[in-house]
Amino acid sequence: MSLSQLRQSVLEANLATVRHGLVLATFGNASGIDRESGRVVIKPSGVAYEAMTADHMVVTDIDGRPLDNRYKPSSDLDTHTTLYRAFTEIGAVIHTHSTYATIMAQSLMPIAPLGTTHADYFRGEIPVTRHLTPEEIEGGYVAATGEVIVETFKGRDPLEVPAVLVAGHGPFVWGRTTDEAVLNALILEEVAKMAWHSHALKPGLKPIPDSLLDYHYRRKHGSDATYGQ
Amino acid sequence: MSLSQLRQSVLEANLATVRHGLVLATFGNASGIDRESGRVVIKPSGVAYEAMTADHMVVTDIDGRPLDNRYKPSSDLDTHTTLYRAFTEIGAVIHTHSTYATIMAQSLMPIAPLGTTHADYFRGEIPVTRHLTPEEIEGGYVAATGEVIVETFKGRDPLEVPAVLVAGHGPFVWGRTTDEAVLNALILEEVAKMAWHSHALKPGLKPIPDSLLDYHYRRKHGSDATYGQ
Amino acid sequence: MSLSQLRQSVLEANLATVRHGLVLATFGNASGIDRESGRVVIKPSGVAYEAMTADHMVVTDIDGRPLDNRYKPSSDLDTHTTLYRAFTEIGAVIHTHSTYATIMAQSLMPIAPLGTTHADYFRGEIPVTRHLTPEEIEGGYVAATGEVIVETFKGRDPLEVPAVLVAGHGPFVWGRTTDEAVLNALILEEVAKMAWHSHALKPGLKPIPDSLLDYHYRRKHGSDATYGQ
Amino acid sequence: MSLSQLRQSVLEANLATVRHGLVLATFGNASGIDRESGRVVIKPSGVAYEAMTADHMVVTDIDGRPLDNRYKPSSDLDTHTTLYRAFTEIGAVIHTHSTYATIMAQSLMPIAPLGTTHADYFRGEIPVTRHLTPEEIEGGYVAATGEVIVETFKGRDPLEVPAVLVAGHGPFVWGRTTDEAVLNALILEEVAKMAWHSHALKPGLKPIPDSLLDYHYRRKHGSDATYGQ
Lengths: 229, 229, 229, 229
Description:
Order of helices and strands of chain A: HEEEHEHHHHEEHH
CATH topology of chain A: L-fuculose-1-phosphate Aldolase
CATH architecture of chain A: 3-Layer(aba) Sandwich
Helix content of chain A: 40-55%
Strand order of the largest sheet of chain A: 3-2-1-4-6-5
CATH superfamily of chain A: Class II aldolase/adducin N-terminal domain
Oligomer: homotetramer
Number of strands of chain A: 6
Shape of chain A: globular
Distance between the termini of chain A: 30 Å
Largest interface: A-B, 26 and 37 residues
């Protein structure tokens, strides 16, 4: 992918999160990576969504070192690059403050797979991280946020469950492409909304059977996928 | 009804579900049947709602065999045709992922008749199916979904209660015509929303008296109907 | 007020309920009365909101006898006229299916005065009627609905609490004028929404003190009113 | 700041609260103060939002004495001026009836810091006032509302927690500028919505750790601020 294509995709991903109502005020940021060149493109800091163009997107290397200096990158950059280094198959990361996903994150409630909409996109529970320690917070909060996500995914496949709830904070979502990450962010919010309502109505509600979870997930993903409805 | 009229009606039913906010992303599908010719018309798979025309609608026979091959039918086709074969008086089927109906489906909570809006459209409880077995899921999931709906309606009149919640999945709704099915899908969502809120506020809330249920249902349906407000 | 003015006001009240999102589909109706001539003007039955003009409004006497025969009156006419006969100071009646007021009606939960928004418009609890008996339902349901409202207001001043929740059905709201009734219907829905959320969060929550209720109510009503914010 | 600039800012703050959906009907008012001249500018009473211009804004001194007499000031003026006299660093006050903040106010539930969105804007719990006594209500309700807010902030820094819930009534919010106060009012409503949902799902939920609260607050405020995302 050319750098100008990546800039455009990342711009569109940032604007899509606003259009879908997933960000409050200016809280949210999307990035993408070109794995061949190792270049990361991320939303700038301090530029209003209405005025944002592809040209405002900030380019860094995979360690977050700026490759140009016209705009300041999003203050969450180090979380994004930590994820790109650890999850080598992902191509885009989005952080939103979408209401129900954030409610679940601050309620420290993982999102259990309660229905097939969940299963179509997330193969199992969407986990909550532990809280960071005071030392982690003071010693590099943004990178530590990425690290606690990576820790939470030990033993999980980040492409099978492409989202996490950071305790007391909100969701991070990813995907192979910016389009996929945007769709995952949108579905996450709906799935979080439905999970909240199901748990509030029926405390102790069980997840759907594994057979149904696997069937739906495989219907959309992998070699047997029969995509579309 | 001519085939081109049916294509147009099915297109409009699909677009109406989007306009009423009953589908998330591309999840949802509407179909119609012409009982004289036995032809079923259903939403295509993989065509964006914005680009969809009557010409994209897919025609099959009542067993789901394609009568033309230009577009792929919705992947839920076999559920629709199973319902058309079993419920011989219905003329249209709609599957949505409307939020509250899906919440009730994944909470395994039937929608009891708690008010007259319910009674105007549904003569009694809207049931939840049982979960499918692993064997049913692997041996033809989409048709099995139709069969478990039919099983759930043993002893019920599908025209008196023109909707069902598929466990862990979401609602299927039907009607004599596509317009009726769209209206039933819209009312179902409102009724599900109100039921969720009533049960969350008052666990154990009783349905309305049978006399009120029957009076309201008969006001809108059958030979004594005094339609309109 | 001239008849043509009243037709126009009643048309606008009907359209305002739709614009404010207080009616679902075509469920809802507003009427007005000219006390001097005794003429009642009400929404017609079976005319779509989009096509509705002042000319479609139906004129009857205070007992619901049609004074012209071009359109059929709303099927809820007898509830409206029963209220006009019993509550001699009211000039307009509105029936909506607004979501939270209907939820409270089907949950059989009166709306306690929990805040000053309530107190500004309703001097005390908004009551729920009892359920109608099977005999009342079969013997003239629509008029009986009006009568059970009147029964519920024995000992209450209908101008101080200009709304009621009909058990298992939904709200009726009134006012001295159609404008006042529309505003009361809008406030009722917000007050019902807030009451639902307060009760769900804090079962057993107490109403605000009488001194605060009275102060706010008097600020907006009566000889000491200092209207506006 | 010139008086005409202040009028314009206060107008915009009033219109912004409507645009953000924070006021119901005409309930709500914003004001600003020029600390140099001591002039307060506030929304007029009885002027529709659609017709409101900078010229309608009412100018008073810090004790609420009108400096011109063309329009009547908002009936909540004395609450605003009481806050300006007590909280000497604030430059703007806004009163809204935003839904969830009002629900928390009438539920007598302070908003605990449950997440980082809260921490970014409010350094700790957003408190609820006590109820006013009957004597306070009758002896000057509007000023007493201001005084009970001041009483509630004894030992708190009003710039660190720029909002309060008045028991049984609703929120008052402030800031150094009208823009800041509008943003605080918008964030308050989102934070209240999330807190309601978290408490309803998980009664007894604990606030986030102090280290996380302080880190996020300092990220946006004070000498170490790294603003933007």
